[in-house]
Design goal:
The chain is mainly beta. It has two helices and twelve strands, in the order H-E-E-E-E-E-E-E-E-E-E-E-E-H.
Length: about 180
């Protein structure tokens, strides 16, 4: 458990999902209370492990949910929100055919997408709303709703764990709160 509260481990975990050309501005350990990830993927098929590109494939709606508390790393870059689980978690998945439509919110699959990689990186510009409130013992409750109907209920602790493994937690938490609190446009 103590390896979770380690800034180097956090940077490594978040680093896998940082978009090209961007850098991590702030990252913290946090808790996810509820996760609902939704995405429409085009020209693909799904397997036991994820989505694979297929020129003859169809549009697939993928919903990934978890309604229990688990440890995450929460980070921001210049234009992205990163949410990465600290330890492998199980999720509820639902798959459905997605309507063809105009394709505006369809992400074409060009390479394999493992299920665990879905819902880790979101453009800050896609945040529809973010509500911040006081939590227990100085924590901050954070409810994020995305334009694609993904949503997260998060808890941002006041402290970054015991042992001093996350020395920048307080300043990074404030930077994340500032960006999510309306400075992300």
């Amino acid at each position: 458990m103590s390896e979770i509260f380690n800034e180097a481990n956090m940077r490594q975990a978040l680093g896998k999902y940082i978009p090209d050309g961007e850098t991590l501005e702030a990252g913290i350990h946090a808790l996810s209370k509820e996760t609902k990830i939704r995405g429409v993927f085009g020209k693909c098929v799904y397997t036991e492990k994820g989505l694979l590109p297929d020129a003859n494939g169809r549009n697939i709606l993928v919903e990934k949910e978890k309604s229990s508390t688990y440890d995450i790393y929460l980070g921001i870059t210049q234009s992205s929100l990163l949410i990465v689980e600290c330890e492998k978690s199980l999720y509820y998945y639902k798959f459905d055919d997605a309507p063809e439509g105009n394709g505006a919110d369809v992400r074409e699959v060009t390479s394999a997408i493992p299920f665990e990689d879905m819902g880790t990186c979101f453009p800050l510009s896609e945040i529809q709303s973010c509500e911040l409130g006081k939590g227990w013992m100085g924590s901050v409750k954070c409810s994020v709703k995305m334009k694609n109907k993904s949503s997260f209920k998060l808890l941002l602790p006041k402290l970054g764990g015991v042992g001093g493994g996350m020395p920048h937690h307080a300043e990074y938490r404030e930077a994340i709160i500032a960006r999510l609190g309306g400075n992300n446009k």
